[in-house]
Amino acid sequence: MEVRKKPSVFVVERGERMTGSSQPSVEEILEEAERRRAVRRKAQPLSTPDRLVVWIARRWLFLFNLAAFLYVGLPFLAPLLMHVGAETPAQVIYAMYKPLCHQLPYRSWYLFGEQPAYTYEELARRVGEEELVPHGLIGNPDLGYKVALCQRDTAVYGSILLVGLAYGLSRRWPPLPLWAYILFGVVPIGLDGGVQLLTYILAYLAPGFPLEPMESTPLRRTVTGALFGLATAWFVYPRLEEVASDILKEAQRRTEAAREFRPDG
């Protein structure tokens, strides 16, 4: 009695079945093994680092807003502490922000004093020019106490915080185009701060040059800083939202695949 050899059955990469009298080739076996390994990798449950990334992706806006609130809020706490006599914690805050901002007395806001801001000349008459250096004068009961961030930085990070809060109400903002970011965010602050810096450099390198250093104003620093902060957040946040959304979708897909996957016997 003639015995027929049972045809071999092999599952190829696309999930189709090939039936034939011959055994699968080595290449086909390797392809099938790689396909099954890929399926297993995709179906693996999320690791601890993966879960951390997912946790951040779900809460990234809250974390950014919290960071912006603390960054721009602590500098306002410093003059409040000085005003109530808690000088040690206030000095700690001023010291923390020294590497982050020049804290020039004539480019800072003041609380609990006669004016919210002072020019170089006004402060020079009151306290002397030797105090008007980076991280110099903090203030006194008459002048008030300065915020630990300069006027421009306060506007930058304050506007980032406000945009973040507004973005949390509706995350459907289209991202700001690059040309608009440069035109409305970078150019104004570059012109105001850049021209100011250039005139000071010229005055230092060429004392006889017939051009006085051009000092910006609190209004210009605030407007240009706010524009830069607003444009930066508008440029970045919608793009971060897209990345976070992709991460969450991939995590959901992997979770469902791990739940449904059954290893081959």
Describe this structure in words.
The protein has 265 residues and is mainly alpha-helical. It has one domain (52-254). Helices cover 61% and strands 8% of the residues. The chain contains seven helices and five strands, in the order E-E-H-H-H-E-H-E-E-H-H-H. The strands form two sheets. A three-stranded antiparallel beta sheet has the order 3-5-4. A two-stranded antiparallel ribbon has the order 1-2. The longest helix has 43 residues, at 218-260. The radius of gyration is 31 Å and the shape is elongated.
Q: Please state the structural category.
A: mainly alpha
Count of separate DSSP helical elements: 7
What is the CA-CA span between the terminal residues? 34 Å
Number of strands: 5
**What is the share of helical residues?**
55-70%
Q: How are the strands of the biggest sheet laid out side by side? A: 3-5-4
Largest sheet: 3 strands, antiparallel
Report Rg.
Answer: 31 Å
Coarse morphology: elongated
Q: What number is the mean pLDDT?
A: 85
- How many structurally independent domains? 1
Percent of residues in β-strands: 5-15%
Low-confidence parts, pLDDT < 50 over ≥5 residues?
5-21
- Determine the oligomeric state from the structure: single chain
What's the order of the H and E elements? Answer: EEHHHEHEEHHH
